[in-house]
Amino acid sequence: NAGVTQTPKFRVLKTGQSMTLLCAQDMNHEYMYWYRQDPGMGLRLIHYSVGEGTTAKGEVPDGYNVSRLKKQNFLLGLESAAPSQTSVYFCASSRDRVNPGELFFGEGSRLTVL
Amino acid sequence: DAKTTQPNSMESNEEEPVHLPCNHSTISGTDYIHWYRQLPSQGPEYVIHGLTSNVNNRMASLAIAEDRKSSTLILHRATLRDAAVYYCILRSAGGTSYGKLTFGQGTILTVHP
Q1: Which of A29, A32, A20, A27 is nearest to A2 (CA)?
Q2: C-alpha to C-alpha distance for A45 and B104, rounded to whole angstroms
Q3: Cβ neighbours, 10 Å, residue B79
Q4: How many cross-chain Cβ pairs, A to B, lie less than 8 Å apart?
Q5: Nearest-CA distance from B93 to chain A in Å?
Q6: Rounded to 10 degrees, what is the CA torsion of A34, A38, A44, A45?
Q7: B15 min Cα distance to partner chain A (Å)
Q8: Which residues contact A3 (CB under 8 A, 6 or more apart)?
Q9: Could you say which of A31, A43, A94 has the minimum Cβ distance to residue B103?
Q10: Is-contact B73 B6, C-beta < 8 A?
Q11: DSSP state string for A18-71
Q12: Tell me: the pLDDT tens digits for B42-91?
């Protein structure tokens, strides 16, 4: 049972380039989330999804887009990367919100934008 | 979103109990109290959560004040592996929050051998 898997784990981009981070979960969870974590800070929510085909904005959505075409996958896209998007990105999933149990996090994707 | 206040850092010795406090004076009736921890270079890991009653699991205990305005995470015997940043988070079960977690700065726990 893999849990939450993020790819790639490391990536270096130049300003203006685009890329997509992939998050996959094998727990049949309805809810999925993308967070970013900057040095010495807690995690901030970028976007989240409450089910296949749905997405919503979190605290810091600007500069990012997401898609949830399949229940098990949640993609985070950067259309034109900026140095301010240098961060560690974490994906998470959870079962539902009626009984808000634990979130399962991936190991993170470290992105550097030059 | 209701906020939490935690000390920036705490220290403990190995095999001693650790009590990590959290204040959440603006907690609402539908907010669950969650604790996560983050080891260096890893994603956050669920520790425990509760609503009103004290909770125990294999990792820790959660003591919740009667008025729910504060709580304490208890690690009964700290090990070196427990050195991490501990986050106390309120997670709403109602409204439009969809169970989101809002992370604060957390408490950096250092465990001495």
Answers
A1: A27
A2: 12
A3: 12
A4: 62
A5: 6
A6: -20
A7: 27
A8: A25, A26, A27, A104, A106
A9: A43
A10: no
A11: -EEEEEEESS--SEEEEEEE-TTS-EEEEEEESSTT--EE-SS-TT-EEE-SST
A12: 999 999 999 999 999 998 999 999 999 999 999 999 999 999 999 999 88
Which residue reads 């749905």 in tokens? A54
The answer to whether residues B24 and B4 touch, using CB atoms and an 8 Å cutoff, is yes
Question: Can you read off the two tokens belonging to residue B48?
Answer: 């425990």
Report the distance separating Cα B19 and Cα B77, nearest Å. Answer: 10
Give me the amino acid identity at B43: G
Which among B44, B92, B98 has the least Cβ separation from residue A43?
A: B44
Specify the residue for token string 């301010």: A84
**Are residues B103 and A101, on separate chains, in Cβ contact within 8 Å?**
no
Beta strands B9-13; B107-112: pairing state: parallel
State pLDDT tens for residues A19-48: 999 999 999 999 999 999 998 788 899 999
